Amino acid sequence: MRPYPGTNLSTDKRIFNYRLSRARRVVENTFGQLTSKFRIYNRRIHALPKNFDNIILSTCILHNFIKKYDKETNLFAEVASTNETLAAYDDLPAVGLNASREAFYVRDTFKSYFISPAGALPWQNNRI
């Protein structure tokens, strides 16, 4: 998902961009930790896309299990750099125009949610 482009954005778009940036940072940090421990993330994953969710879920479960039960050894080295982490996703195929329209709709839906009473965070306006 892409942030809204530009500098003179409305408050709701700036809030969306901020929240997206925070979410992206969490995902990148998580994949950095997984990459440092599981070699499958250091190269292109040779599996069917339908299996990606199971691969990711399995490594997350293993990560949490090791972190919980193996406290005596230092199994988690420094987090790999973002560039190494994202290298496995090079050359992803482009998507068509309809996918872009759907992405804009999803982005706008999240934008509306982030400023709604149900989705707004008390501190988000102080961060933009």
Explained architecture:
This protein has helices spanning 11-37, 49-69, 82-86, 97-115. It has one domain (11-115). The relative contact order is 0.18. The protein has four helices and no strands. The model is unreliable at 77-83 (pLDDT under 50). It is mainly α.
Q: How is this structure best summarized?
A:
The chain is an all-alpha fold and 128 residues long. The chain has helices at residues 11-37, 49-69, 82-86, 97-115.
Key features of this structure:
4 helices; mainly alpha; single chain; HARBI1_dom; 128 residues
Content-based structural category: mainly alpha
Note the quaternary state here: single chain
Question: Cα-atom Rg, whole angstroms?
Answer: 18 Å
What count of structural domains? Answer: 1
Low-confidence stretches: 77-83
Q: Kindly state the percentage of residues in helix.
A: 55-70%
| Average of per-residue pLDDT values | 83
Total count of helical runs of at least 4 residues? 4
> How would you sum up the major sheet?
none
- Taken as a percent bin, the fraction of beta residues is under 5%
H-E order = HHHH
Number of DSSP E strands: 0
